[in-house]
Design a protein that fits this description.
Elements: H1 2-28, H2 52-57, H3 67-79, H4 99-104, H5 110-114, H6 117-134, H7 136-142, E1 146-147, E2 150-151, H8 154-164, H9 166-174, H10 189-195
Antiparallel strand pairs: 1-2
Amino acid sequence: MIKKWIYYTSIALITAFITLSFKATTEKNSNVVTQDEVSFYILPSLEDIDNEAEFLNFNFPYTGKTFTGFKEALAFKESQGRYTLINSLGYMGKYQFGRSALRAIGIHDSSEFLNNPRLQEKAFKALLAKNKWELRKEIEMYEGKVINGVVVTESGILAAAHLGGAGSVKKFFKNKGKRAIKDQYGTTLKSYMKKFGGYDTSFIQANSNAKIKH
């Protein structure tokens, strides 16, 4: 019994030491990430999930219901978390921004955007703030209700707006979710609203004039 106690105590002490050492190291590292900064890690590669049923059932990494969980899950679907990705339609970066969306938040140099992870993180939050303002009435009216089989949440609405724009989300509610509104790859707003529902996006403040200062 004594030997077992010594063994397990040693394991616990070693684990605690490693944890504290890691914490001390990361606190000194300028690349440590908070939800207000940038995720510098690279998500594992995965073949594109084309089937919508597979997409809805797929467990993305980092899907805790925090804001960080929200943005990383969405980024994984959009680009597998790759900052430098440009898709076949010209959408760019970790969150797959189009040029018009970039201009709307004050970014006009797409090359700088593509090569600046911190700018991409700021851009994502700015677009969320703008969409949250644009859809504030829909959030207030529909949050918590079930529309065509989907429990509506703020994060689901914001994810759908990221996919198809605020105007498309308004059409979704106008048609009570019965109209299959899709992006150019065939992904529906309904699937985004369902998959990315229930995350904490209260961190984002609605702002009709959200712009990037850099």
